[in-house]
Design a protein that fits this description.
Elements (H helix, E strand, L loop, with lengths): L110 H14 L1 H35 L5 H44 L7 H7 L4 H16 L2 H12 L5 H25 L3 H8 L3 H12 L3 H36 L4 H42 L1 H15 L19
Helix pairs in contact: 1-11, 2-3, 2-10, 2-11, 3-4, 3-5, 3-8, 3-11, 5-7, 5-8, 5-9, 7-10, 8-9, 10-11
Organism: Nonomuraea soli
Protein name: MFS family permease
Pfam families: GPDPase_memb
Length: 433
C-alpha cells in the first residue's frame, strides 16, 4: 500500500481503495453506531414517540434534520402531480390563495367574489365604465323625465287650486298621460339601443380586466366591430321571447274588462296572470343571461350564443337565478337610495310650481339626474355580474380556470397583458370540452 494510505483497524487487508465496509459490522440501525472488534454492540436507542400534528395555522415542531434547501414541503401538504397548476418543480401550500391578477381570483367564484369583482370592474376603469354608463342612463332618462314633468304640472294645479276649471284640468291630465306613455315608449327604444351597446362595451372591458389589463372605451368599441348585429339579434330574440305571452294576455284583459266583470274578479285575474307570467320571464332571463358574453367574448352568432348560454346554465340554474335576483335587488336598492332625493325634490317642484315653464324645466332636470345616477350604478353592476357568472360557469364546467391561470403566469413573466388575451375566451381553449 502506498504511503499515506494506512488502513484503519478492522478493514479487510485485501480490499483495495476505496475501502470496503468492516467485516464485523452489518448495516447499523438508525441512531446506532457500528460496533468495533472486541466491543459489545451498543444497546438499541429508545423509541422516539410520534410527533402529534400541529393545529392548523401553527408551525409544526421540529422532527429531525431539515430537507435540502428548495425541497422542504409545507406542513401537511401533499405533492401535486406534474401538469397541475400548483406543480412548479416542488410543492404548493394547499391553503395558498388563488391567483388574482385582475378583478377576480382565478378559481370558481362565490357570490361575494362576483359582487366584489363587479365593484372592482368599476374601480379598475372608472372613466370608461362610469362615463359610458352615465351617458347611457342620461339618454334613457330624458324622455321619461320630460313626460313626468308634463304630467306633474296639471296634477299640481289641481291640488293648489281646487277652483280650477275641471274640464281644463282633465284635458291637461289626459295630455300628460299621453306624453307619459309616449316618453316611456321613446325611452324604451333608446334604452334598447344604448343599453345593448353599453353591455357589449362593458363585457369587452371585463374580458381584459380579468387578467389585470385595462382598455379604453374607444379600444373596446373598435374591438367590437362586426359584433353589433349579433348583439342586437340576441337582445331582440330575448325581447320577443319575454313578451310572447303578452300577445295573448293583453287582448284577453281588454275582452274581460269589457264583459261586465266585477272589479274584484278582474283584479284577481290580473294577479293570477302575473303569478304565471313572472316565473316564465325569470326563466327566459336566466337561461339566456350568458348570451351577450358569448357574442362578445366567443364571437358567436345570436342563435348560437343563446344555445351556448342554455348549455352553460344547465346544471346550475337555481344558483344562477339566485345570484341574478340578488344582484338586481341590490343594484336597484342602491340606485334608488342615491337617486331618490333628486326624484322627490323634482316631483315636489313639478307639483307645487304652479305649472309654470320654469318649474317644469327644473322638475325634469332633477328627475333626470335621479334616474341617471341610478342607471350609472346599476348598469355596470348588472353587466359585470352577468360576465363574471359566465366566467364562473366556464370554470366549473370546462375547467376554464386552468386556462386563465396558465395565461396569467405567462403574462406575469412577460410583465404586461397582451391583447391576445382576448382570444383565450374562445371555447377551443377550454381545458375540458
Amino acid at each position: 500500500m502506498s504511503e499515506g494510505h494506512e488502513r484503519p483497524p478492522g478493514w479487510a487487508a485485501d480490499q483495495p481503495p476505496p475501502y470496503g465496509a468492516p467485516a464485523s459490522s452489518p448495516w447499523a440501525a438508525p441512531g446506532q453506531q457500528p460496533s468495533q472488534p472486541g466491543q459489545q454492540p451498543a444497546p438499541p436507542a429508545p423509541p422516539v414517540p410520534p410527533v402529534p400534528p400541529a393545529p392548523y395555522g401553527e408551525a409544526p415542531p421540529p422532527a429531525g434534520p431539515a430537507a435540502p434547501y428548495g425541497q422542504q414541503p409545507y406542513y401537511g401538504q401533499q405533492p401535486q402531480p406534474y401538469g397541475h397548476p400548483g406543480h412548479q418543480g416542488g410543492y404548493q401550500h394547499p391553503h395558498a390563495p388563488a391567483m388574482r391578477p385582475g378583478i377576480i381570483p382565478l378559481r370558481p367564484l362565490s357570490l361575494g367574489d362576483v359582487l366584489d369583482g363587479s365593484i372592482k370592474l368599476i374601480r379598475s376603469n372608472p372613466k370608461a365604465v362610469l362615463g359610458l354608463s352615465a351617458i347611457t342612463a342620461l339618454l334613457v332618462a330624458i324622455p321619461v323625465a320630460i313626460s313626468q314633468a308634463l304630467l306633474l304640472g296639471p296634477m299640481g294645479s289641481l291640488l293648489t287650486n281646487p277652483y280650477a276649471d275641471p274640464q281644463e284640468v282633465e284635458r291637461s291630465i289626459n295630455s300628460g298621460f299621453l306624453s307619459s306613455y309616449g316618453g316611456s315608449i321613446l325611452s324604451y327604444l333608446i334604452g334598447f339601443i344604448a343599453v345593448t351597446l353599453l353591455t357589449g362595451v362593458l363585457t369587452r372591458i371585463l374580458g381584459r380586466a380579468v387578467f389585470g389589463g385595462r382598455i379604453t372605451a374607444g379600444e373596446a368599441w373598435s374591438l367590437l366591430k362586426g359584433r353589433w348585429p349579433a348583439l342586437f339579434g340576441v337582445v331582440g330574440l330575448m325581447t320577443l321571447l319575454t313578451i310572447a305571452p303578452l300577445v295573448v294576455l293583453v287582448p284577453l284583459f281588454f275582452v274581460m274588462g269589457g264583459s261586465g266583470m266585477s272589479d274584484g274578479a278582474f283584479l284577481g285575474f290580473m294577479f293570477l296572470a302575473l303569478i304565471i307570467y313572472a316565473p316564465y320571464a325569470l326563466f327566459v332571463m336566466t337561461r339566456f343571461s350568458f348570451a351577450t358574453p358569448a357574442v362578445v367574448l366567443e364571437r358567436r352568432g345570436p342563435v348560437e350564443a343563446m344555445r351556448r348560454s342554455w348549455q352553460l346554465v344547465s346544471g346550475d340554474f337555481w344558483r344562477v337565478l339566485g345570484i341574478l335576483l340578488v344582484t338586481m335587488l341590490l343594484a336597484g336598492f342602491v340606485s334608488a337610495i342615491i337617486g331618490l332625493p333628486f326624484t322627490l325634490v323634482g316631483t315636489f317642484v313639478g307639483m307645487l310650481g304652479g305649472n309654470t315653464t320654469g318649474s317644469l324645466i327644473v322638475s325634469a332636470i332633477l328627475i333626470t339626474l335621479g334616474t341617471m345616477i341610478g342607471g350609472m350604478i346599476s348598469y355596470p353592476i348588472q353587466a359585470g355580474v352577468s360576465g363574471l357568472l359566465y366566467t364562473d360557469r366556464r370554470m366549473r364546467s370546462e375547467a376554464f380556470d386552468l386556462v386563465l391561470q396558465t395565461a396569467a403566469i405567462e403574462q406575469q413573466r412577460q410583465g404586461w397583458v397582451h391583447a391576445s388575451a382576448d382570444d383565450l375566451w374562445h371555447p377551443s381553449n377550454s381545458a375540458r370540452q
